[in-house]
Amino acid sequence: xxxxxxxxxxxxxxxxxxxxxxxxxxxxxxxxxxxxxxxxxxxxxxxxxxxxxxxxxxxxxxxxxxxxxxxxxxxxxxxxxxxxxxxxxxxxxxxxxxxxxxxxxxxxxxxxxxxxxxxxxxxxxxxxxxxxxxxxxxxxxxxxxxxxxxxxxxxxxxxxxxxxxxxxxxxxxxxxxxxxxxxxxxxxxxxxxxxxxxxxxxxxxxxxxxxxxxxxxxxxxxxxxxxxxxxxxxxxxxxxxxxxxxxxxxxxxxxxxxxxxxxxxxxxxxxxxxxxxxxxxxxxxxxxxxxxxxxxxxxxxxxxxxxxxxxxxxxxxxxxxxxxxxxxxxxxxxxxxxxxxxxxxxxxxxxxxxxxxxxxxxxxxxxxxxxxxxxxxxxxxxxxxxxxxxxxxxxxxxxxxxxxxxxxxxxxxxxxxxxxxxxxxxxxxxxxxxxxxxxxxxxxxxxxxxxxxxxxxxxxxxxxxxxxxxxxxxxxxxxxxxxxxxxxxxxxxxxxxxxxxxxxxxxxxxxxxxxxxxxxxxxxxxxxxxxxxxxxxxxxxxxxxxxxxxxxx
Length: 553
Prior knowledge:
By secondary structure, this protein is an all-alpha fold. The chain has helices at 27-37, 39-63, 67-77, 80-85, 97-124, 126-130, 133-138, 146-173, 180-207, 211-234, 237-240, 244-249, 261-280, 306-334, 339-343, 347-356, 361-393, 397-401, 407-441, 446-455, 458-474, 484-499, 503-506, 524-547. It is 71% helix and 0% strand.
């Protein structure tokens, strides 16, 4: 006969027996706390994704109201370059407004939903550990898996809320080809892909000790999934089946309405989340599974200077955006030679291109989509300009400023990297756009023209950075306000000509004052004015930072 003895604590008394459920103790409380913290952030995400989808669906209804117009759209979409940017050819068999939504928008929205889910998970796991808050919380009655479980629960709540909003919104639009069942499938497809990338983030959050590294690895998985999907839709269909984005597109929503591919997403999401929980037991709080790489015994000369240190802090983000923007430019350039055929029967787009001007459709089309490239670069600029806030909140700025380093030099180094890095991103994207566009359109002059067109947006990027610096300098807790500039720039610059927004709305964005090269001629006056405005905003931001106290969380 054997007996089981209870474990003893340090005082010799029997310690309480722990069960598997104890590892999740406190999850509900952390979920409620997370919803309270992210109520504004999540609301903005959900409203932006929902309203963008509904606006696009309404545009499809207006632009392609007759069978003849839809047939012409099929002809413009049935090319390798167009399929790589949209989705599988099967959608073209019954190209209703709903099929257009699934074909042209579902893959793009999958990337955005993936980004939302990744940011939710990494914010409530790795960022909590990196700032030391997780260790403080775990000193109370909180289980080992509570942080990860609560983060995944928040992602589930956000993804399901998005699915419900999309289903209700599309059903309420009452568009031919979009029924309640298809609308529900369309919404749940977004939720399913969001859960997949939330599971991916649960794994990457265990690998590295840094939030940006965990998010960056998860973003790379999103990019690989999109690239596999694009390659499979153009060539070997098997490649698309290696991508979860390809899975949700093969629901063929509003065409065949197949539900079973969503089960693949749910299985992968569950396995990833479970694997993340397992990996979390193999590391210490605040550490990552991947050991930190040993550096040099002494710092290089560059790291002893504010600019060199700032560049080192921004290096990974800058390289990631550079690769992404170069790829974006190459993808846009690959369809430049087919732009005239793609838009020749779409009256509203033709009117928008006519307003831009240009001697050819390719030039007008390049000028219109160049705004998207510039806005993507503006996203990096805002992130870089607000990085000092993260350094300040984490308490890393105070030890530096306690030395002989002035506040102006410290903040100015980050601003310099934001300005120079954003400009470099524009040149890289313009070069990729130009090389690919020249090969597609058979016009070598497009290389330099498109590089110049991209570089012309640099002063607008500097104004964007200036707004972020101003907010950081005077109102550090309101940093999210700076994101209004790139968001509005995309609305006014890219959708504005199609939606026929009035000129005064277009001029509210700094990007609206940039000459639309190569369709229009160069005009230095607005660029010089934007540069002056950017300089004024940055100086005001530096002044505000010098006058206020440091704030640490």
